[in-house]
Amino acid sequence: MFLHTLNEKINLPSLVRNLAFPLFCGLLAGFLSRKHFSVYADLQKPPFAAPASAFFVIWILLYLIMGVSSYLIFQADNPCIADALGIYLMQMFFNFIWPLVFFNLENYLLALIILAALWFSVLQMVNEFYSISRTAALLQLPYLLFITYAGYLNLGILLLNKM
User: Fold this and answer.
1) Which of 90, 86, 74 is nearest to 18 (CA)?
2) Alpha carbon of 20 to those of 54, 68, 76: distances in Å?
3) CA angle 39, 44, 50 (to 5 degrees)
4) 108-132 and 52-75 helices cross at what angle (nearest 10)?
């Protein structure tokens, strides 16, 4: 009975698409940067820098949360969906290019600028999502917090590894 009710409430194809999109973007960016991940180990890092192995797990969880959040927006009956999803796509673009600039190009200043743009676009997305689905907006808060932490790391790396 419970599963039957759950299936009526959840649009499974839409949920799968919404989960797959951020995972695909993140995995593609990781794949394109994979040969340069060793750069992180050789950098001087600020205090409280996480080990490189932690980032994969954290990002997978964040991408899944993004997918659930975007699914809630897609399923809402609200005229603001297009604007909210446009901002979602914009932040995914910044999310996608950041590792390419940081790892592949080793341009920590440009990476920090991209991260700032990502942070502001996620903040804007949270505000847009909130007008449609409070739950979808709140689900994005761990992402915003982690980007804040990533900004701290990026700035620390920029300052400690002047080239």
Assistant:
1) 74
2) 21, 10, 19
3) 80
4) 30
Q: Which CATH class is domain 16-160?
A: mainly alpha
* 163: Cβ contacts below 8 Å, ≥ 6 apart: 106
Residue corresponding to tokens 């997918």? 67
- Over residues 109-144, the pLDDT tens digits come to 999 999 999 999 999 999 999 999 999 999 999 999
pLDDT single digits (tens) 26-79: 999 999 999 998 989 999 999 999 998 899 999 999 999 999 999 999 999 898
CA distance 100 to 95: 10
